[in-house]
């Protein structure tokens, strides 16, 4: 991804000046900083950022500038990236399956916090030399609904196995913590409450006082125009549940939002390559920044702009949206209402696109080149 500098005022000003033929992501540092502030002020504990949601250098840089002092990292490459931008930041290596080479790399870069969900993976960390005193955060799972898709199929010990692991971790001299992930785009505060209640039960069963409780990511972003993500209600529910479940042995809390931290700060501009009756062909699709749309449902937060910057305002006509590759999987779900006066060369501006967009772009069919432009305002 090419990062363009300096600042432009708005996406429209950039599109009119540059007429880009590749997709462009527009980043608003102001919105990113405001979202970071909302988490720091509202969440009753340490706020970290899940780098995987968007690992662009300017995103990490702006979050560190906004006051984030800790990051959730999934791989040595993410560790090295954050170290190069925010060398003092605390790093929580919370991908619970790692190769021995990955563990060695993390130790070499000074990581002292790891999640584990299995005795074999804990043994690997010990054998590779993670020193006692480091934090071992046991990850567990519950059959809880409320998210767009569930993460429990892949990672997490059962509560019973988590209690055994927590006991083993504490006995071996590591700082015992617990974590869970309610699943991404989780809109129901009750999911966190169920996990927090279970956390207290696991700590009790293990006979261990928790050092910290990491309540994961999963916080929702505004995917549809009608959405109002209930962040404050989730923060209140977490605070209340921890007070009720842990009483006087309340652990310090951590959260690690990815999606909710970065989604709103980025809009995506795609170019209309061609129009056919009932269909539009764009310069990006499921192998690029729109990869999540077929999984999560097509967002309706979009508008069409002519190359001279005028918004297209014709009556909405439902159209099938195709991406640029040569296969017919590369299409958006459903028929999307788009203005009848849109034309070849126009731009489709899609909002709320900061998370899991650039992060998963492929070069399939030779596409996937993208620019990131920093703007003062997204409107
Ligand atoms: C351990 C961990 N923490 C946090 C996140 C971020 O989740 P979200 O983007 O739903 O907030 C993920 C996502 O995969 C994760 O695996």
UniProtKB/TrEMBL annotation:
Annotated pathway: Amine and polyamine biosynthesis; putrescine biosynthesis via L-ornithine pathway; putrescine from L-ornithine: step 1/1
Domain of life where this protein originates: Bacteria
Official protein name in the record: ornithine decarboxylase
GO MF term set: ornithine decarboxylase activity
Source organism of the structure: Roseicyclus elongatus DSM 19469
Pfam families: Orn_Arg_deC_N (PF02784)
Any one of the GO BP annotations: putrescine biosynthetic process from arginine, via ornithine
Gene3D superfamilies reported for this sequence: Alanine racemase (3.20.20.10), Lyase, Ornithine Decarboxylase, Chain A, domain 1 (2.40.37.10)
Family note: Belongs to the Orn/Lys/Arg decarboxylase class-II family.
Reactions mediated catalytically: L-ornithine + H(+) = putrescine + CO2
């Amino acid at each position: 991804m090419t990062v363009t500098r300096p600042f432009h005022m708005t996406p429209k000003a950039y599109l009119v000046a540059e007429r880009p033929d590749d997709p462009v992501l527009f980043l608003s540092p102001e919105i990113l900083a405001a979202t970071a502030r909302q988490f720091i002020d509202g969440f009753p504990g340490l706020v970290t950022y899940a780098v995987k949601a968007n690992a662009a250098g300017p995103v990490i840089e702006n979050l560190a500038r906004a006051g984030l002092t800790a990051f959730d990292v999934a791989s040595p490459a993410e560790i090295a990236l954050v170290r190069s931008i925010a060398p003092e930041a605390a790093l929580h290596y919370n991908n619970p399956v790692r190769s021995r080479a990955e563990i060695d790399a993390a130790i070499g870069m000074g990581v002292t916090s790891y999640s584990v969900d299995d005795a074999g993976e804990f043994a690997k960390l010990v054998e590779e030399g993670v020193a006692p005193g480091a934090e071992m955060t046991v990850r567990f799972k519950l059959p809880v609904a409320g998210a767009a898709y569930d993460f429990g199929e892949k990672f997490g010990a059962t509560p019973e196995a988590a209690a055994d692991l927590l006991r083993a971790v504490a006995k071996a001299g590591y700082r015992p913590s617990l974590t869970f992930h309610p699943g991404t785009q989780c809109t129901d505060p009750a999911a966190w409450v169920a996990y927090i209640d279970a956390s207290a039960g696991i700590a009790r069963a293990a006979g261990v006082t928790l050092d910290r409780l990491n309540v994961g990511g999963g916080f929702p972003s505004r995917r549809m125009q009608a959405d109002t993500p209930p962040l404050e209600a989730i923060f209140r529910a977490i605070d209340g549940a921890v007070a009720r479940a842990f009483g006087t042995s309340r652990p310090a809390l951590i959260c690690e939002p990815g999606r909710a931290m970065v989604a709103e700060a980025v809009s995506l501009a795609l170019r209309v390559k061609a129009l056919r009756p009932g269909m539009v062909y764009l310069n990006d699709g499921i192998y690029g920044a729109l990869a999540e749309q077929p999984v999560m449902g097509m967002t309706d937060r979009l508008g069409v702009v002519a190359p001279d910057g005028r918004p297209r305002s014709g009556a909405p006509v439902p159209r099938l949206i195709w991406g640029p590759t040569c296969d017919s999987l590369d299409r958006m779900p459903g028929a999307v209402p788009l203005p009848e006066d849109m034309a070849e060369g126009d731009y489709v501006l899609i909002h709320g696109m900061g998370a899991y967009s650039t992060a998963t772009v492929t070069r399939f069919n030779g596409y996937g080149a993208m620019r990131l432009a920093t703007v003062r305002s997204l409107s």
